[in-house]
Design a protein that fits this description.
Layout (H helix, E strand, L loop, with lengths): L13 E8 L8 E8 L11 E6 L4 E2 L7 E7 L2 E6 L11 E8 L10 E7 L6 E2 L1 E5 L4 H16 L19 E11 L4 E3 L5 H15 L4 E2 L7 E6 L8 E5 L3 E6 L2 H14 L2 H4 L6 E10 L5 E7 L7 H13 L4 E5 L1 E2 L2 E2 L8 H4 L35 H13 L3 E8 L4 H16 L3 H4 L29 H21 L5 E5 L12 H8 L9 H15 L3 E5 L4 E4 L2 E4 L9 E4 L9 H8 L2 E4 L2 H4 L23 H4 L32 H5 L1 E8 L7 H8 L2 H10 L4 H4 L3 H27 L14 E5 L2 E5 L6 E5 L16 E2 L5 E5 L9 E2 L3
Parallel strand pairs: 1-10, 12-13, 12-14, 14-16, 18-19, 18-29, 19-22, 22-23, 23-24, 24-27, 27-28, 28-29
Antiparallel strand pairs: 1-2, 2-7, 3-6, 3-8, 4-7, 5-6, 8-9, 11-17, 15-16, 15-17, 20-21, 25-26, 30-31, 31-33, 32-34, 34-35
Length: about 800
């Protein structure tokens, strides 16, 4: 690979981006401008250069007269090149180009990753980039703040002790008299069966309390007694905290583990903050069990990479709150993130992004990852030993990791890696080895474009070498789990978003059709999953995938596929948008095992709200902590949710949809919340989108079915829901957010923006979490921890700026009311 170096004559360019009109001439497209500035002492010549960047389908407004052209390369990757007529850009000069794109709703949509490459040279240079928002943002922000105020007004500050002492809410809990005083002589008495869970708890407790409890010591006071009893459910437990002792009853190791997590959660927040003075635990009787066996969080490390350390942090926090599955999305179009012995190209090529023409050594930049191979989110992968260590750690926390090999679509990183491998062995004159793991038909003339903009991201399932590849990767995964001593019951094979047009002009497909194995390209779908299912069953595994594994294409439409309904396929069903509201229920009723992954309630990468400044996607709506909390798994039509535009759904919108049958209920195996990583460029952004949203997920995955979900009267149901939600946000705000400030060195959870309204010449402000402090200034400056605390309505007409602070003094984003 030619090494990218700094240009000999550095143009030192700058680009500014300005949104001009969100809906240009009422077309629904956004008009923006890119202004190229040359502040350096080297001119940008009229030709001989290209600017590369990532964006969403931009095009030049007036392509006939503009002296530059924008060309799509692949995915979200574009290039801007001069045409004849472009003038040399001299020092101090600027050049502006108007462009059209799809609607830009927030700053997440802005272009990224601009860099310059000079022709006939191994040079690349990142370009300084700045953005400007549209002028009317402040008005829309204030309108949103008013809606937030109305929403917040339904909650009130509750006294400590009037809401659940821990989250997720236990099946049954009751406050008892007194408290247990924790002594450094704490002794834990346990049967040998539970020694692993107790040993892990002792290590955690040492971190919190500063001393190590004894295991099976001789002391009979200040003790925790763990009893094995028969006939409790798999993960159920009984926890009784009395002044004289703590008693735990459980049948399984998982039950003991969750009891000990609850015991940690009962420790006062000051202990989590490092205060190790007199430690007490209030007396409680807790009888608890989970509602669903499959309680999952999906972490995407493919689009943008996240380290083993961050994954370990995620495992630990989801285990604390009783989620038991980490769905690890490690492969996609934009990256392959797990070392596979024998296939080094997967990580050497597919695990790195950077400037390239051939993609022989790395794949093209995505999501603004830029020209250099060492970009920390665009490049990176888990070594085998790292993954084995994560599996061991997850096992100790009773978390199962489900690996996902995204196929046959969303597979570009793997395809390009195997293309590179092919070229390498062809150069060595070894055609047999070159073709061993090839994932594409080299003579395929099919034309397609995926929803993410790729034209070469689908594995050709007619190629025998594709199955050789997938068997190799599967067997290496099995080997890793075996080395870790971790359970592997399923491998997730993706299956989503294969675009129209694939395989239609492939000689390999034509040969398969001619042989009579399949009748037409649409039949390849069932052919592929039949073979994958057979391969997994031979290895004692079952198939997991996205909803399409239970569907087939008939006359251009995706309909239920009865072929695999009894094959124990586990389908993560995300699509409950217009036309597919009942898809999860149709699959469950047909016999598929369904993990509810509804985009409108569970997609944590969606923005918290419509603010122009909130990071996140919005194509599936907006998700705050209330959306997963409000989710009703067995009748989500009744969930008080909005549509994808954030507008209230009409009453009875699900009346004409397929309802979940009693048999279908048995096939709803769990709940999952994904956090896709297209916009994740740091741990802080990841954690901002993760919490506090995840608290709603853990509540619905573990806690029993709430009364408001089954109450037939709409008015009473709403009243019950509002009371339950009020208790929930108080538990989050008063207890859990403060814990997250300190747990595992802290989490960068989102602190909400204040709700604001003006009424009768007064300005009112409130907070989503009633206990958090609101501070303000009257001169337009940013409020700090030392600014006045809002306690009553303020006179309108001032330059008021409001900001919410957590209990640790960290502030959220402020709302400036302007002049």
């Amino acid at each position: 690979m030619a090494t990218l170096v700094k240009p000999r004559q550095n143009p030192n360019l700058e680009i500014s981006f300005q949104v001009t009109a969100v809906s240009y001439q009422n077309t629904g497209e956004t008009l923006s401008s890119l202004t190229l500035k040359n502040p350096g002492n080297t001119e940008l010549r009229s030709s001989g250069w290209t600017i590369y960047f990532n964006f969403s389908n931009p095009r030049v407004l007036d392509s006939t007269t503009a002296p530059v052209t924008i060309t799509h390369i692949n995915g979200d990757f574009f290039k801007l090149s001069p045409k004849p007529g472009f003038r040399t850009l001299k020092t101090g000069e600027t050049f502006k180009i108007d462009i059209l794109t799809r609607t830009i709703k927030n700053f997440t949509d802005y272009p990224k990753g601009f860099y310059l490459v000079l022709d006939n040279d191994t040079t690349a240079y990142p370009i300084k980039f700045e953005t400007h928002t549209i002028e009317n943002v402040k008005a829309s922000e204030l309108e949103l703040a008013k809606l937030v105020y109305e929403k917040n007004a339904k909650t009130t500050l509750l006294k400590a002790g009037s809401f659940s002492p821990i989250l997720p809410t236990p099946y049954f809990y009751e406050r008892q008299k007194g408290e247990f005083v924790v002594s450094p002589k704490l002794n834990i008495i346990t049967p040998p069966k539970f020694i692993a869970e107790v040993t892990g708890f002792v290590k955690d407790f040492n971190t919190l309390a500063g001393f190590t409890p004894t295991i099976n010591g001789s002391l009979k006071t200040n003790i925790i007694v763990i009893n094995y009893i028969k006939n409790l459910k798999d993960e159920a437990y009984q926890l009784k905290v009395n002044p004289d002792k703590i008693q735990i009853n459980a049948t399984t190791n998982a039950g003991v583990f969750y009891a000990l997590q609850s015991l940690k959660l009962l420790l006062p927040n000051r202990v989590w903050a490092g205060d190790r003075s007199k430690i007490t635990i209030k007396s409680f009787q807790i009888n608890d069990e989970p509602r669903f066996k499959h309680r999952a969080f999906m972490m995407d490390i493919a689009r943008n990479f996240q380290s083993a350390e961050q994954i370990k942090k995620v495992i630990e926090v989801i285990a604390l709150y009783k989620l038991n599955v980490l769905h690890l999305h490690f492969s996609d179009d934009e990256g392959w993130r797990l070392e596979i012995p024998g296939l080094p190209e997967l990580t050497e090529v597919g695990g790195h992004r950077g400037h390239t023409v051939t993609e022989f050594n790395q794949i093209v930049p995505s999501y603004g990852s830029g020209p250099y191979r060492n970009n920390k989110t665009g490049s990176g992968y888990l070594k085998r030993r790292d993954f084995v260590a994560l599996l061991k750690f997850a096992k100790s926390r009773h978390v199962k990791i489900i690996p996902e090999i995204e196929t046959p679509g969303h597979a570009r990183a793997a395809i390009k890696s195997m293309d590179s491998r092919y070229q390498k062995f062809i150069r060595l004159n070894n055609r047999q080895e070159a073709e061993r793991y090839l994932l594409c038909d080299l003579n395929d003339q099919s034309r397609y474009r995926s929803i993410q903009g790729f034209n070469d991201n689908v594995i050709n399932v007619a190629m025998p070498s594709a199955y050789t590849f997938l068997q190799k990767v599967s067997d290496e995964l099995i080997s890793m789990y075996k080395d870790a001593g971790a359970e592997l019951s399923t491998i997730h094979f993706g299956g989503d978003e294969v675009p129209v047009g694939v395989w239609e002009k492939s000689p390999a497909v034509a040969a398969l059709i001619q042989s009579g194995t399949v009748k037409k390209p649409e039949g390849l779908w069932s052919y592929y999953f039949y073979k994958i299912n057979k391969m997994l069953k031979q290895r004692g595994l079952y198939l997991s995938g996205w909803e399409e594994i239970g569907l087939q294409k008939v006359k251009g439409k995706m309909v239920l596929n009865p072929l695999f309904s009894t094959e124990n396929f586990h389908a993560d069903v995300w699509n409950n948008l217009s036309g597919n509201e009942d898809l999860a229920y149709r699959l469950a009723n047909a016999g598929y095992k369904v993990v509810l992954t509804n985009v409108t309630n569970m997609y944590l990468d969606l923005s918290y709200n419509k603010s122009y400044f909130e990071p996140g996607q919005y194509w599936g709506g907006y998700v705050d902590v209330d959306k997963p909390f409000a989710f009703i798994p067995y009748n989500y039509y009744k969930s008080p949710i909005e549509d994808a535009e954030g507008k209230p759904l009409r009453a009875g919108y699900g009346d004409n949809k397929v309802q979940l049958t009693e048999k279908g209920k048995e096939n709803i195996v769990g709940i999952q919340a994904p956090l896709w990583s297209e916009i994740i460029f740091s741990e802080n952004t990841f954690e901002y989108l993760l919490f506090p949203k995840l608290f709603g997920v853990i509540e619905r995955a573990w806690a029993k079915n709430p009364g408001w979900a089954t109450e037939p009267g709409s008015a009473k149901s709403k009243q019950m829901y509002d009371a339950a939600y009020n208790s929930f946000v108080n538990a989050v705000g008063q207890t859990e957010l403060n814990r997250l400030d300190y747990f595992l060195s802290g989490f960068n959870y989102r602190i909400p923006t204040p709700g604001i309204k003006i009424e009768n010449g007064k300005v009112y402000a409130n907070s989503q979490y009633p206990n958090l402090a609101i501070r303000y200034t009257t001169d337009g400056t940013e409020p700090t921890l030392y600014s006045p605390k809002y306690s009553h309505p303020l006179p309108a007409g001032q330059r008021l700026t409001f900001r919410i602070f957590n209990q640790n003094g960290r502030g959220g984003r402020s709302i400036d009311m302007g002049e």
